[in-house]
Specification:
The chain is elongated. It has 2 domains: about 15-130, Response regulator (Rossmann fold, 3-Layer(aba) Sandwich); about 140-230, Arc Repressor Mutant, subunit A (Orthogonal Bundle). The protein is built from 8 helices and 12 strands. The protein is α/β, with parallel strands linked by helices. It has a 5-stranded parallel β-sheet, sandwiched between helices. The chain has helices spanning about 20-35, 45-55, 70-80, 95-105, 120-130, 165-175, 185-190, 200-210, and strands at about 15, 35-40, 60, 90, 110-115, 140-145, 145-150, 155-160, 160-165, 185, 220-225, 230. Helix 6 packs across helix 8.
Length: about 240
């Protein structure tokens, strides 16, 4: 996987499920460079836990996994999973027509045989997202208790009265709003500031909490995700 990634794919959140550590890490690194938010799981049990915690724009399941394979995972997802409508792209080293048909019958949206070019994977993902209208989540006004935020205008209000935001605060809040209910990596957020250490992001989060939260010391809407970064959790 040495090809250069294509243009940024926005901030859409993907889940990659593959039991091969090397493949999983390569996919995460490449897709992250392409602009996606990427979570990974080594098996079906870990995938189920993540699916119960976060909203994903697209799921990538390897077919050949020990225990619960990709076919079983997508079947569970479509019948009773917490993200029944999430699009699924299946990966497999087997390229038989029967396998492709089985995956599609179970509810997969597309099927990509291994080995594949990373650029093709990204193009397949983008095509699926276009078909399923899975655009970045930042279009509508978000409710945050007594506050509301309009990502398009970058405007925050409290009890319908404007709340002043600095340009940096508005940019950060937009970024988190585009990934509502999903954690955003602190260091990645820092890359968009003049301080790559992340301290500037921490300061902005503290200021935003004073403007949004009823109790800034016990935030309900602008949460810290330990070991990752921050998450906006609107009503």
């Amino acid at each position: 996987m040495n090809a250069q990634p294509p243009r940024s794919a926005g901030a859409r959140h993907l889940l990659v499920v593959d039991d091969d550590d090397r493949i999983r890490d390569l996919l995460k690194a490449y897709l992250a460079r392409a602009g996606f938010r990427v979570s990974t799981a080594a098996d079906g049990a870990a995938a189920r836990r993540l699916l119960a915690m976060f909203d994903f724009d697209l799921l990538i399941f390897d077919v050949m996994m020990p225990g619960e394979d990709g076919f079983q995972l997508v079947e569970w997802l479509r019948k009773s999973g917490p993200a029944k409508a999430a699009p699924v792209l299946m990966l497999t080293a087997r390229d038989g027509a029967n396998d492709r048909i089985q995956g599609l019958k179970l509810g997969a949206d597309d099927y990509l045989p291994k080995p594949f070019e990373p650029e093709e994977l990204v193009l397949r993902i983008e095509a699926i997202l276009r078909r399923t209208h899975a655009a970045p989540r930042a279009a509508e006004r978000l409710m945050l208790g007594r506050c509301s935020f309009d990502p398009r205008r970058g405007e925050l209000s409290r009890d319908e009265q404007p709340v002043r935001l600095t340009e940096a605060e508005a940019r950060l809040l937009r970024r988190l709003a585009a990934n509502a209910h999903a954690p955003v990596d602190r260091i990645e957020l820092a890359r968009e500031t003049a301080d790559p250490s992340g301290r500037a992001v921490d300061v902005q989060v503290t200021r935003l909490r004073r403007k949004i939260e009823a109790d800034p010391k016990a935030p309900r809407y602008l949460q810290t995700v330990r070991g990752v970064g921050y998450m906006l959790a609107p009503d």
